[in-house]
Give the backbone structure.
Amino acid sequence: MLDSPLLRHLAGYEAGAFLPDVPAGRWQEPDAAGELVRVVDPATGDVLAVLPSYGAVDATRMVQSAERALTNPAPLAQRAAWLIAIADALLAHRDELARIITLENGKPIGEAKGEVDYAAGFYRTAAAEIDVLQPRVLAAKPKGLTWTVHARPAGVAGLITPWNFPLAMLAKKLSGALAAGAPAVIKPANETPLSVIALFHLMHTLGLPPGLVSLAFGDSSAIGKVLCEHPAVRVISFTGSTRVGQTLAVQAAPHVKRLALELGGNAPFIVFGDADVDLAVEQLMATKFRCSGQTCVSANRVFVHESIADALTATLAARVDALRVGPGTDPSTDIGPLINERAVANVHRLVDDAVTRGASVAAGGRTTAGACFFPPTVLAGVVPGAAILREEAFGPVVPLVRFATEAEVIAAANDTEYGLASYVFTRDRERVKRVAAALQFGHVAINTGSGPTPEAPFGGMKHSGYGREGGAEGILEFVELQTVPEA
């Protein structure tokens, strides 16, 4: 078992001391013996922890506990206090939480610390925006009546999160649910449950009522099916692949549940001829190589105007060749491992396909130690039809595509089923207006590689999903509006 003051209670697993309802202060065995969850350090292959696998009966029990908590939602002031306390707890244990993230995910320790800060920001923002839920009395009196609009908790929320940002992706969802008064059953990725378990250990000290938050790691299909079919669960918030999101939508449709889906991305990164090349490269490095390229907002297709393509390629290649690959626990590491060997094989496939079609390797290609490592790579001259331009690479590879005209690059950028994040670099303010309006993406960053922030709503278009996280809008995903006219 990973030695951590936030995880020492897990040692009780062998003695049968598990209960997924952490605020009750206990852990107990799952209902039925299932395949154990083994958490592995992708940098070394070492097993960090062996956990029980929860299934349908356990998930049902958690939903029932959440349903009981729903009957007595806390006042807004109490919810805000809990949110601020969670943010404070995260920051107070920042270094240890970051260490856990790095060990189970692989990302460099500096990035992991940034993730803890980012996660805390969502809880603070939700607390700051919670007054959006105050009852609102219409100024007019239609039909001679007083009309009040109430924001009621929508019901139990099922929160399903990915492995690439285990604390931050949960924070995006849990902050909104707690603000809304919606009890949550959380299904973290089996690859990275330890940081979430550590968070639950911290939340146990805050006096949250039993059933307000529950944690279910284990049989993803069985747990997901319960969340989709149990009548008490009224909202499902999921971040992950479009394929899984489609499955959840189909399973939830007969029960008319609300879904908030942040799905796959295929982000274009457009650099026009008048752009500041050094700025574009700096920002591309930041957005592309975060978490070794394993983010849904990572620049996946880099379109560079033909007039500056050679200069940008040379500058970028020099920067990429200087990156240090290694375990995330080493403070000098720039690029950590991918999450598993399957991810490495997929990136190899995409690079080989692009090279076969005529692309050249401008940087990278060096052998790296460890089965889960892939060298940061720049591919120049990638041609239309390459698989890496259609699929989300989820790895440290930059495919460069030349373009000639504004109309051409807008059409190429929009030529994808996805619509999550996009990036545009130009000094022309009129072009900024035209291109931003033309791009079919929920996030259009101008002269920056910045992704989402807790203060603003974030989400996708097309096959990248629907619903928003962050800002006041992220809270409203978990409420139903009730209109009360009164004589």
The domain at 8-263+465-486 is CATH 3.40.605.10 (Aldehyde Dehydrogenase; Chain A, domain 1). The radius of gyration is 23 Å. Residues 109-129 form the longest helix (21 residues). Residues 340 and 372 are 5 Å apart (CA to CA).
